[in-house]
């Protein structure tokens, strides 16, 4: 007995097979925020990280990033059975058969939710005599409209329902394809089998709690008619027929169901399909048709190929004429068939197809170079007449209204990427060889110079040269960059951190559409080595396709020269020490913890400090001159103190003052003098710190403002027989589990020697000792402000004496416990105790305040679930969340200056995460705010695009000040 072929609706979306297949995360490949607003798959991680940029007190460009917050997308269920999503009486299939035949009705269950679920099926049909002798359900994995095997998923005899156990179906348009077999009784007559006989198919998901009311069950209907005449059925498949081809010795081309599209140069010819050239793709379609009725009849079918295919002329063969090519011309073939192919329209009329006879027509198609990835332009359904088509010709077929099953060819993507500079293109930035960028400016980005300790940025372009959307993983190799350099990737704005969008553990570009490109910024944070190495320095940035991990490309980032600072302020032409932040050094970025120069003067009398201003930039500049009693600028001197700046060689008596100084480029240096005068009423003071600062009035070649600060001091003298001082009081920052070194100077300020032996001790608060804070004391034998091999660990008393006007350099090393939290402080009180008595120099002391920080600007990111998307929820924690598509997430980013000096040009920047959008989310009432900043930030300083948000532009944040950015995003649904 021959089986009746099914009817299948057209227009299926790209689909996943129901069993044995990996679940494809479409959101990663085909969309993100701004690319595609599809609901992200269940358990997708939405990650988000913010950044803040600012200039530190020395004018170096700095970058701080927040913690990464993550939200897991919750599963939401939805599905369709054929074309319906609820219980209906919609008729999907109308099949016709003779008494004793079995007809097959195809169905498709599509899981349109964002996660995998299982579904059960039930088929209810009337029993014989006005019904079926048997109902069975078969899997149809390949979608050809016929059972995959003879083993049914369920069988129902009369009066019983056919129940299929739960079948697993992948989310995001995964499908379970099946056919229902209806057996018409052999004794059926038009009186005992009243056409149409109906059967109801019902599908039910297992996890009903995931589904909306009304979508917890779906049902539709099949109709079966009894006939005593011809009953035609047809299916369409990508397969080779049982008869030989008309060319290539009878061997058909491979009938692939998937593959890439053809190159534009390929030809739709029999010769091309016989021996395909590289890049040319062909496949074979077979139209199967049979008569399961009780009488012969004329069969008519029409097949209009979709836009992704081109019919190969002269390739068609009818099974009743094996190995003979049909002519493609109307009425041009042998007796029994009228076949015509005009462009992409194929029509055939078989004059007489006998009862219980099956035949095929097969032909070759070429996959076009313009075929869309997936199946949208390569899914084909033919139309046929299910009953006798008397009078039809290939030019005018009649009654061709019943569709075959859709036969889909899946066009697979090809992947390719190119990385280059901002000036490069997809053709000019190609590597010289694998992993070796070409040496041109198209593949090499060069900065003339960079400042040690600063962050520099390189703009690159990532090109998608494949024909599919792709995500490109990004890595940077240190190369010859100084040890300690770190790299971070940002979006085109240079502010929004790139994250790992597909949870493979590597930062990536996010989705890039085929043929398009993405601009990224590579930020290199340079170390501050004691000795500046000689360039040039090069690092290699590598991009790797996640669609095809064998495809990778590189580009080169180069710094020609590394300078300690773009601007340097020193007391001598050559500078003092090895570092402006160590001991009393003033070479490089300052200020130093100890004064480089200490001048003594009587109250009311000025003292002159010689200053050298050096310009290491490639462009000339003019620098402003300022002084302060603290590291904060603009600042002030102690009450009654004055400062004036005069040209080189000037004195306190010089009348002409200056406020700026011009310095030529490339190491140019200009000398100035600073006259500092304490008031006549000033009491004796030892080493009153005076900080001098220069600041460029023009932007540098790097686009930033160059600054440097140095430390000097003034001692106002007064007679004293026995006295000593321990200076200075220090403030420092330390990381959890780290240490910080403070330099002190013990000075005999009296006229006589301070007798020994004397002791040095550092006392910590008891609570800090319990918490794990510790100290160690050293004699700084070489006076460089650093602990090195020549320094002596203090384990007892120091012999002395300390001669009049003599000094003793001391170092205190403070260790923070590993569990210390940011913001925790410790005060170490360092005391020198001289022998008691009339000649004692006393117990001078100083304090070292250590603050635990993770960076000068600290960013904290918090998140909260806003299920109603009202914008009224305020985040209080960074705890991971679980959100459903359609719900909202409120983000709060707080940038706090934990340093001891103001930072400038601060702004907070964040990105709208992949799989979310600002659209549909009510934004918080206060989106941008600040405390202790200039200007005070408000909503007017909030800026948003479809993909980024920011708060503040060029804001100055005082120590302890903060800025806050809040925004709300909606998870795509």
How would you sum up this structure, described in words?
The chain has 973 residues and is mainly β.
Features:
6-stranded mixed sheet, 973 residues, 9-stranded antiparallel sheet, 2% helix, 3 helices, mainly beta
Set down the secondary structure blueprint.
Elements: E1 3-4, H1 26-30, E2 45-48, E3 51-55, E4 61-65, E5 69-73, E6 79-81, E7 87-97, E8 102-111, E9 117-124, E10 134-139, E11 154-156, E12 162-169, E13 174-183, E14 197-205, E15 218-226, E16 232-237, E17 258-259, H2 270-274, E18 282-291, E19 297-304, E20 309-311, E21 317-318, E22 337-342, E23 345-353, E24 357-367, E25 379-380, E26 383-384, E27 402-403, E28 407-408, E29 410-411, E30 417-421, E31 444-451, E32 455-464, E33 470-477, E34 486-490, E35 508-512, E36 517-525, E37 537-545, E38 552-563, E39 567-570, E40 598-601, E41 607-615, E42 621-628, E43 642-647, E44 660-663, E45 668-677, E46 685-696, E47 707-716, E48 724-727, E49 730-734, E50 739-748, E51 759-763, H3 766-771, E52 774-779, E53 792-793, E54 807-815, E55 825-833, E56 845-852, E57 857-866, E58 881-883, E59 888-897, E60 903-911, E61 916-917, E62 928-934, E63 942-944, E64 948-971
Parallel strand pairs: 1-8, 5-58, 7-15, 17-29, 31-38, 40-47, 49-56
Antiparallel strand pairs: 2-5, 3-4, 3-60, 6-8, 8-13, 9-12, 9-14, 10-11, 10-13, 14-15, 16-18, 18-24, 19-23, 19-26, 20-24, 21-24, 22-23, 25-28, 26-27, 30-32, 32-36, 33-35, 33-37, 34-36, 37-38, 39-41, 41-45, 42-44, 42-46, 43-45, 46-47, 48-50, 50-54, 51-55, 52-53, 52-54, 55-56, 57-59, 59-64, 60-64, ...
């Amino acid at each position: 007995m021959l089986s009746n072929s099914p009817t299948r609706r057209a227009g299926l979306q790209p689909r996943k097979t129901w069993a044995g297949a990996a679940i494809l995360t479409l959101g990663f490949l085909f969309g993100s925020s701004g690319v595609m607003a599809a609901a992200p798959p269940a358990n997708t991680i939405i990650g988000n990280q913010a950044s803040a940029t600012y200039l530190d007190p020395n004018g170096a460009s700095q970058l701080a990033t927040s913690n990464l917050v993550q939200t897991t997308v919750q599963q939401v269920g939805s599905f369709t059975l054929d074309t319906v999503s609820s219980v209906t009486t919609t008729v999907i299939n109308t099949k016709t058969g003779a008494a004793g035949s079995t007809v097959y009705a195809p169905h498709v269950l599509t899981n349109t939710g964002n996660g995998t679920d299982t579904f059960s099926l039930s088929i209810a049909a009337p029993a014989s005599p006005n019904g079926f002798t048997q109902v069975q359900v078969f899997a149809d994995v390949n979608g050809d409209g016929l059972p995959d095997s003879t083993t049914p998923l369920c069988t129902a005899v009369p009066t019983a329902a056919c129940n299929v156990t739960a079948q697993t179906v992948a989310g995001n348009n995964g499908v379970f394809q099946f056919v229902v077999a209806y057996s018409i009784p052999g004794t059926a007559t038009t009186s005992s089998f009243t056409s149409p006989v109906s059967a109801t198919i019902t599908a039910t998901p297992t996890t009903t709690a995931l589904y909306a009311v009304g979508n917890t069950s779906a049902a539709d209907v099949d109709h079966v008619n009894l006939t005593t005449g011809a009953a035609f059925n047809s299916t369409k498949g990508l397969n080779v027929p049982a008869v030989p081809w008309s060319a290539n010795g009878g061997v058909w081309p491979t009938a692939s169901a998937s593959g890439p599209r053809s190159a534009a140069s390929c030809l739709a010819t029999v010769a091309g399909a016989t021996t395909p050239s590289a890049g040319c793709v062909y496949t074979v379609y077979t139209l199967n048709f049979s008569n399961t009725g009780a009488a012969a009849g004329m069969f008519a079918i029409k097949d209009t190929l979709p836009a992704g295919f081109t019919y190969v002329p002269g390739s068609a063969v009818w099974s009743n004429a094996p190995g003979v090519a049909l002519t493609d011309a109307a009425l041009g073939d042998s007796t029994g068939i009228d076949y015509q192919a005009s462009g992409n329209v194929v029509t055939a009329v078989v004059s007489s197809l006998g009862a219980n006879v099956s035949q095929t027509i097969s032909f070759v198609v070429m996959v076009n170079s313009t075929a869309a990835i997936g199946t949208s332009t390569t899914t084909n359904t033919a139309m046929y007449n299910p009953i006798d088509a008397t009078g039809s010709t290939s030019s005018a077929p009649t009654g061709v209204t019943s569709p075959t099953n859709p036969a889909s060819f899946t066009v697979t993507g090809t992947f390719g990427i190119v990385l280059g500079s901002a000036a490069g293109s997809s053709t000019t930035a190609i590597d010289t060889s694998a992993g070796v960028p070409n040496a041109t400016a198209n593949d090499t980005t060069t900065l003339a110079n960079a400042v040690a300790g600063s962050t520099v940025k390189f703009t690159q372009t990532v090109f998608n040269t494949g024909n599919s959307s792709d995500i490109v993983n990004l890595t940077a190799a240190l190369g010859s960059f100084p040890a300690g350099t770190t790299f971070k990737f940002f979006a085109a704005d240079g502010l929004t951190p790139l994250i790992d969008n597909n949870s493979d553990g590597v930062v990536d570009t996010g989705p890039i559409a085929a043929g398009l490109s993405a601009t990224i910024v590579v930020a290199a944070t340079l170390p501050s080595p004691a000795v500046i190495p000689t360039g040039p320095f090069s690092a290699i940035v590598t991009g790797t396709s996640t669609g095809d991990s064998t495809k990778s490309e590189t580009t080169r980032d180069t710094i020609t020269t590394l300078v300690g600072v773009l601007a340097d302020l020193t007391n001598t032409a050559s500078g003092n020490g090895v570092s402006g932040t160590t001991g009393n050094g003033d070479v490089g970025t300052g200020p130093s913890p100890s004064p480089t120069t200490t001048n003594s003067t009587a109250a009311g009398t000025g003292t002159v400090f010689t200053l050298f201003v050096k310009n290491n930039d490639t462009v000339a500049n003019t620098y402003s001159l300022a002084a302060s009693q603290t590291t904060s600028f603009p600042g002030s001197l102690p009450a009654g103190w004055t400062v004036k700046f005069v040209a080189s060689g000037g004195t306190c008596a010089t009348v002409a003052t200056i406020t700026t100084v011009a310095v030529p480029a490339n190491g140019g240096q200009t000398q100035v003098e600073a006259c500092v005068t304490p008031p006549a009423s000033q009491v004796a003071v030892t080493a009153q710190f005076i900080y001098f600062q220069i600041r460029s009035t023009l932007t540098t070649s790097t686009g930033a403002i160059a600054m440097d600060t140095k430390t000097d001091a003034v001692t106002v003298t007064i007679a004293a027989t026995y006295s000593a001082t321990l200076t200075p009081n220090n403030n420092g920052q330390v990381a959890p589990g780290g240490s910080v070194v403070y330099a002190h100077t013990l000075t005999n300020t009296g006229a006589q020697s301070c007798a020994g032996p004397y002791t040095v001790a550092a006392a910590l608060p008891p609570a800090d000792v319990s918490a794990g804070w510790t100290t160690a004391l050293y004699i700084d034998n070489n006076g460089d402000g650093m602990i090195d091999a020549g320094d002596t660990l203090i384990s007892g008393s120091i012999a002395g004496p300390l001669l009049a006007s003599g000094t003793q350099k001391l170092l205190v090393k403070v260790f923070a416990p590993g569990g210390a939290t940011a913001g925790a402080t410790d005060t170490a009180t360092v005391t020198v105790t001289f022998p008691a008595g009339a000649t004692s120099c006393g117990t001078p002391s100083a304090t070292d305040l250590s603050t635990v920080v993770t960076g000068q600007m600290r960013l904290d990111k918090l998140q909260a679930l806003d299920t109603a998307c009202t914008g009224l929820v305020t985040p209080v924690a960074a705890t991971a969340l679980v959100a459903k598509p359609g719900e909202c997430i409120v983000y709060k980013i707080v940038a706090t200056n934990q340093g001891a000096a103001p930072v400038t040009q601060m702004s907070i920047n964040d990105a709208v995460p992949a799989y979310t959008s600002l659209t549909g989310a009510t934004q918080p009432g206060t989106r941008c705010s600040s405390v202790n900043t200039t200007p005070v930030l408000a909503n007017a300083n909030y800026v948003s695009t479809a993909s980024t948000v920011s708060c503040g532009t060029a804001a100055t944040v005082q120590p302890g000040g903060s800025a806050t950015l809040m925004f709300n995003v909606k998870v795509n649904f």
